[in-house]
Amino acid sequence: MSPKIDSLELAHLHFIPKPHKPDTPLRPIVAAIHAPATEISKFLNDLLAPIFLRVARQTTFINGIDLVRALEKYAANGHLKPTTLFITFDVENLYTMIPRQGALEVLLQFLERNLRNNKIGTLRIDDIMRMARLVLDTNIFVYEKTHYRQIRGGAMGSAFTQTLANIYMLDWEQQLIHDQQVDQKIYGRYIDDVFMTTNLTHDQLKAKLENAHRKDPNIRISYSIQSTIDFVDVTVSNEGDHLKTSIFHKSAAEPYVLPYTSDHPRHVF
């Protein structure tokens, strides 16, 4: 995990437009392939992501097919009614909005609950927490010849950021998961996008989602309630208790291939 001194490079900030959203907002990306803490960030991601997935697999969608299979099972068990609605909500700016100290506290609780003997191999929880703090403390980058240090959230482009955000969200969503399971309804999340089913009225749903919205000032959600809805790469419809699915392409999707030498993480290719 030691950085290669002769190839170290300070991270730099650039932006990717999101043309499928109103006013074309920009997504900030910190390109940190050769930054000092990059290898530690990758190590933490490789170490903790499998544990998160094991713990949260029942409420985590890996892709659109995951959702389709869950809905097919849901319908086969007789839970899909003519009144069933689909809800999706998006967590706004998840990676950059999670609070540093709050995320570390949630990470510590997650590790204490889910590690046998408070260790992963020979690594103690304290060792993992020290590395996590190091990654967050060294989110330093250059933008237009000025140096900045990110003090909130994780860097978009750091491998550990997604895992930390997932663990933080897992803590935030526990009440929603519980309510959905009690009602035998679907709850699943793909990073910052959540899908749910319900037979509640629109007013009841809005009250429930507004309560979730107020739970944590760092988590802002925007939601949609429909009988036909897009989620990840599928469109799902409830047509009189009959499930219909089709492939969904975002309007911004283009059939381009990323150059291998780009700053994208290797798992993208």
Overall description:
This protein is an alpha+beta fold. It is built from eight helices and 13 strands. The protein has one domain (5-249). The strands form four sheets. The protein has a four-stranded mixed beta sheet, with no helix packed on it. Strands 8-9-3-10 form a four-stranded antiparallel beta sheet. The chain is globular, with a radius of gyration of 20 Å. Helices cover 38% and strands 23% of the residues. The chain has helices at residues 38-56, 64-76, 94-97, 100-114, 125-137, 159-172, 174-182, 202-215, and strands spanning 11-17, 26-31, 85-91, 119-120, 123-124, 140-143, 146-149, 187-190, 193-198, 221-226, 228-231, 234-238, 243-247. β11 and β12 (234-238) form a beta hairpin. The two termini are 23 Å apart.
Features:
Reverse transcriptase domain-containing protein, four-stranded antiparallel β-sheet, 269 residues, RT_dom, four-stranded mixed β-sheet, 8 helices
What structural category do the secondary elements indicate? Answer: alpha+beta
Radius of gyration: 20 Å
Secondary structure tally, helices: 8
| DSSP strand count | 13
Kindly summarize this structure in a few lines.
The protein is of the alpha+beta class. Helices cover 38% and strands 23% of the residues. It has one domain (5-249).
Q: What's the arrangement of secondary structure elements?
A:
Blueprint: E1 11-17, E2 26-31, H1 38-56, H2 64-76, E3 85-91, H3 94-97, H4 100-114, E4 119-120, E5 123-124, H5 125-137, E6 140-143, E7 146-149, H6 159-172, H7 174-182, E8 187-190, E9 193-198, H8 202-215, E10 221-226, E11 228-231, E12 234-238, E13 243-247
Parallel strand pairs: 1-6
Antiparallel strand pairs: 1-2, 3-9, 3-10, 4-5, 6-7, 8-9, 11-12, 12-13
Domain Reverse transcriptase: 1-247
Organism: Rotaria sordida
Protein name: Reverse transcriptase domain-containing protein
